[in-house]
Amino acid sequence: TAYEISTRDWSSDVCSSDLQDRDETIGRHKPFLEIAKYLASLGMVVLRYDDRGVGRSTGDFLSATTNNFADDARAVWQYARSLEGVDKDRVGLLGHSEGGIVGPMVAAWQREVAFLLLIAPPGLTGSEVLSSQLDRIAELQGVGDASRAAARSLQSELQRIALKYPADDESALTDVRKAVLDRWQGLSGLSEKTDGSIDAGTIKKQVLEQITAQFRGLQSPWMRHFLAYDPSSNWVLFDCPVFAIWGEKDVQVLPGINRSKLETVVTHNTNLQADFLIIPNLNHLMQTAKTGLPDEYESIDEAISPVALEAMGLWLRKREILP
Predict the structure, then answer these.
(1) How many CB atoms are located within 10 Å of the residue 315 CB?
(2) For the segment 118-145, what is each residue's pLDDT rounded down to a tens digit?
(3) Measured distance CA(159)–CA(214) in Å, rounded
(4) Are the C-beta atoms of 61 and 220 separated by less than 8 Å?
(5) Which of 166, 197, 278, 303 has its CA 20 to 30 A from that of 36?
(6) How many CB atoms lie within 10 A of CB 267?
(7) Rounded-to-integer distance, Cα 75 and Cα 88, Å
């Protein structure tokens, strides 16, 4: 019996989180629907649900954190175990991106979780995940080393400010402005200056406004929790079989550094049956990609690569989870 969790994914925007329905609808693609069909074809029971506040689910999405979403997932997992015809001892969890944090959280709370299938799970803190994805995207977009270094420094400072002040404290904006101006020489290379019609003062004002607006996103309850949270801590608290896969071209949850962090952590959990796989040429959504950049997602025809689905099926057979 499989239980698929349709937790929200923050893949469509590098600085914020989006509501997700049970299909994980992203543009014209519905990857969770495709995964559900595939698992069902293997003889598994699949249960999906809408995030709180979206689709047919009630609740307040904007004030929730990953902990709240893990509570939701645990409640639905417990419900799945009560369904007639479902073997309650064989109910596992599947999660993508933030769902790769939620699944291990629930498994750490509930020892009865039978297995975990995790797609692009973060191993680093949210602060490290966000900083690394922004830097990688900038690199692929051709941003120079000096500008990227300034942007990394600014991102780190903005995160520190977001965690220092209460979410509604306007005095944080004074620190934000100072952080930008202190790094202006490096950041000025990031602004678009296609002609001489815009003076330097106007450009600086526009950049300050843009960064201030982005900083507001860092002040949300979800983001403040995400920045400070270390998801790898849960991996020493459960021992069910777990399969974690990443796309080689993933620019949202960089595969190399997140996999390495989790591999290091699980050496301290000798009872854990953990398998890790990075699949070539796939992006964050496990689509066959050219660059891996988010603006490419919509143009790709497939919702999810058959290679990724087959990898899940092979692992389920290997661990004797399939019925």
Answers:
(1) 19
(2) 999 999 999 999 999 999 999 999 998 9
(3) 11
(4) no
(5) 278
(6) 10
(7) 14
